[in-house]
Amino acid sequence: MKREKVCKIFCIILSIVIIAASFAGCSEKSNGSDDESKTTTTTTTTTTTTTTENLETTFPETATQKVYEGLKKDSDGDYPYKLAEYTSTYAASNKTRTENLKVSADKINNICIPEEKVFSFNQTVGKRTVTAGYESAKVIKDGEFVDGLGGGVCQVSSTIFECVLRANVEIVARTNHTLEIGYVPLGGDATVQWNSKDFKFKNTLGTDLRLKMTCSGGKLTCSVWSKKKIDVGDVKIKITSSNGSYTLTRTVNGKQNYRTTSKYKKAE
């Protein structure tokens, strides 16, 4: 009897030990899962952001520009009346600059400006980047010519400026270059920088307009076409210079309705 009693007590003690060991194992496993979860949630990954353009030689950005309603292209609509046309020339042998002219001119071609709407060059053409098709060519930065993405785009904006002046639309925003340029007369240029300097005009002619722009064989041409036949009047553009300043005036039927003055530095 004694022996049986001892055996029972031994079995009970052994069972208690086994059960205790099982609980200990479960507890360790649970703690391990908590550690794994903690490691996963606190692990961070460092990434490097790259850009496709040299910000030192392209276009600075600000957050102060007014955003206008986006304009659309219309290559099929009927705009039979030519109101104005202007052509500037470029060196077709300069392949990278020519490519930039073609890329931006293509963005402009067939763009429509409804009555009373504002055309924004920067909003229409977009940011000048490698992914947008632009290449490195000469731009003006800090008063000197340097290489930068989109070099040559200002010839497109300047050609548009010269053209729409002759169509007698309202000029909303225009800035001259800091250095002298040669593709349009001094005083008749319009520089652009992404989200900083823009060229804008408002369609005040009482009918929808369409811009046509071609770039081929050393000639960059912009023309303005309208849906309705209108008379823009007898438009005359005159540029005078005095003491290093160039003043452009537009008169329509003998009355001045636009005037702007420009000053330039000579490139060294």
| Beta strand count | 12
Structural class: alpha+beta
Helix content: 25-40%
* Low-pLDDT ranges: 21-65
Explain this structure.
28% of the residues lie in helices and 28% in strands. The chain has 268 residues and is an alpha+beta fold. The chain has a domain at 81-230. The strands form four sheets. The chain has a four-stranded antiparallel β-sheet with strand order 1-9-8-2. The chain has a three-stranded antiparallel β-sheet with strand order 3-7-6. The protein starts with a helix and ends in a 5-residue tail after the last strand.
Main traits of this protein?
268 residues; alpha+beta; 4 helices; 12 strands
Q: What's this entry about, in short?
A:
This protein has 268 residues and is α+β, with helices and mostly antiparallel strands. It is 28% helix and 28% strand. It has a four-stranded antiparallel β-sheet with strand order 1-9-8-2.
Annotate the secondary structure layout:
Blueprint: H1 2-42, E1 81-89, H2 95-108, E2 111-113, E3 118-120, H3 121-125, E4 136-141, E5 144-149, H4 153-166, E6 170-173, E7 200-202, E8 209-216, E9 219-226, E10 235-242, E11 245-252, E12 255-263
Antiparallel strand pairs: 1-9, 2-8, 3-7, 4-5, 6-7, 8-9, 10-11, 11-12
